[in-house]
Design a protein that fits this description.
The mean pLDDT is about 95. The chain has helices at about 20-30, 45-60, 80-85, 105-115, 130-135, 140-145, 160-165, 170-175, 195-210; strands at about 5, 35, 65-70, 70-75, 95, 120-125, 150-155, 180-185. The N and C termini lie close together (about 10 Å). By secondary structure, it is an alpha/beta fold. The strands form two sheets. The chain has a five-stranded parallel sheet. About 40% of the residues lie in helices and about 15% in strands. Bound molecules: zinc ion (ZN). Zinc ion binds near residues 6, 8 and 72. Zinc ion (ZN) binds near residues 8, 72 and 124.
């Protein structure tokens, strides 16, 4: 089972593709589960239209590919509580970004706020090792106890990914941690999509032996 749970459409300020373009590409590439995760934080983003558009796409493709409705939620600054209330029951999952940034939401504040979301939640392209050091905490324990998954983001824009690939200690630590993992290409334009990199990351996640979100039972 190949998954790609991080993709952007024209409904993100920095995306251009239609959901159909992304999903057709996923089908051609042998991806079983594709998640759309547009950015929520610009004024032009319309949550209702977003959900309706993706619900229709999900229906249209239901026999060919499992389409998940996600959202990538920025934490610089903390979003309004309104978002959590509105999205409940409509999202299959959401990704939080920038917790590892200096301007990101405080980790403890985030852990409280995240409870407002009833869907599965994960950390997009987050250097959890840096977070662990910054707060002096066992980040694996925190992720496990708060039911938060961790994304392996293959876009190449985040150094934690290369560091993770080249550091056997970190891979061993994640493998033994029992945390849940997701894999995302973070595609904003279809020409950026790298099929072999995505497949390798899916294989790596499986080798690590962690639970991979949305594989079993989906
Ligand atoms: Zn993204």
């Amino acid at each position: 089972m190949i998954q790609d749970l991080h993709n952007h459409t024209y409904m993100s300020y920095d995306g251009v593709e239609t959901p159909d373009t992304l999903i057709d590409n996923a089908i051609r590439s042998g991806i079983d589960i594709i998640g759309i995760t547009d950015h929520q934080f610009t004024d032009s983003f319309d949550f209702d239209t977003y959900i309706k558009t993706l619900q229709l796409a999900k229906k249209r493709y239901k026999d060919k590919c499992s389409v998940k409705i996600g959202l990538e939620i920025g934490t610089r600054p903390k979003p309004d509580n309104f978002l959590a209330k509105t999205s409940s029951g409509l999202l299959d999952y959401c990704l939080f970004e920038s917790l590892d940034s200096e301007r990101g939401m405080d980790l403890y504040e985030f852990l409280e706020w995240r409870k407002l979301f009833s869907c599965p939640t994960g950390l997009a392209h987050t250097d959890i090792f840096a977070l662990s050091e910054r707060y002096g905490v066992d980040i694996f324990k925190i992720l496990r106890e708060n039911d938060i998954f961790w994304e392996i983001n293959i876009s190449g824009n985040y150094s934690y990914y290369y560091d993770f690939l080249s550091n056997p200690k970190k891979r061993k630590a994640v493998s033994e941690s029992g945390i849940t993992i997701s894999i995302g290409s973070d595609t904003h334009r279809i020409y950026e999509f790298n099929k072999s990199k995505l497949i390798s990351a899916n294989e790596l996640a499986e080798t690590l032996g962690n639970r991979i979100i949305f594989v079993k039972g989906w």
